[in-house]
Each structure stands twice: as structure tokens, then as C-alpha cells.
Amino acid sequence: MTESQRRLIQCFTAVFADLSEQQAAVATIDSVSDWDSIATVTLVSLIEEEFQIHIASDALAQLASFDAFYRYLEARLPAHDLVAAR
């Protein structure tokens, strides 16, 4: 697991407190009953703060899973931020 994945899991579990870390890592908008538009805005805000990035509003429709958020981050973060945590 990369440090970025670990940090992203923390964002997910902060918004969706009922999720374990393992559940957060595979979460999708369909698998998390509390994932609504307000949760999306809260999650995006936390991720933007945690990773010091801006998530474009036109990308939100595609960001419907942990994996989608991670791929979005992969495309925008420097490679050194995505290396495996020691």
C-alpha cells in the first residue's frame, strides 16, 4: 500500500465512519449507503486539503469509488508522493 492510499483511506473513513480501512479501500458509491451528494462534497474537500490539490468539479461524476479517486490522484501528484510507505 502506498502512503497516498493510506492517506486516502483516512479521508474515506473520516467521512464514512462505519467503514473499516479494508472496506474503505474498495468503497464505491453503490456499496456505501451513506454516500450521497453531501458526502461527496465533504470527501472531496478532505481530499483536497489532505493532498493540497484542487479537484475539478467536472471530474466529480467519474469519482464514484476509492479506486477512481486514487487514479485521479495518481494522474496529478508527483511520483514521489505515490511510492510505497516504508
Q: Report low-confidence residues grouped into runs of 5 or more.
A: none
Whole-number count of domains: 1
Structural class: mainly alpha
Average pLDDT, all residues: 92
Taking the alpha carbons of the first and last residues, their distance comes to 9 Å
- Give the overall shape, derived from the CA principal axes: globular
The CATH topology is given as Non-ribosomal Peptide Synthetase Peptidyl Carrier Protein, Chain A
Residues in helix, %: 40-55%
CATH superfamily: ACP-like
The helix tally amounts to: 4
Order of helices and strands: HHHH
The amount of beta strand, in percent, is: under 5%
Description:
There is one protein chain. The chain has 86 residues and is an all-alpha fold. The chain has one domain: Non-ribosomal Peptide Synthetase Peptidyl Carrier Protein, Chain A. Helices cover 50% and strands 0% of the residues. It has four helices and no strands. Helix 1 crosses helix 4. It is globular and about 30 Å long. The model has no long low-confidence stretch (mean pLDDT 92).
Q: Which descriptors would you attach to this protein?
A:
86 residues, mainly alpha, Non-ribosomal Peptide Synthetase Peptidyl Carrier Protein, Chain A
Q: How do you describe this structure in short?
A:
With about 90 residues, the protein is mainly α. It has helices spanning about 5-15, 20-25, 35-50, 65-75.
How would you summarize the topology of this molecule?
Layout: H1 3-15, H2 21-24, H3 37-51, H4 66-76
Helix pairs in contact: 1-3, 1-4
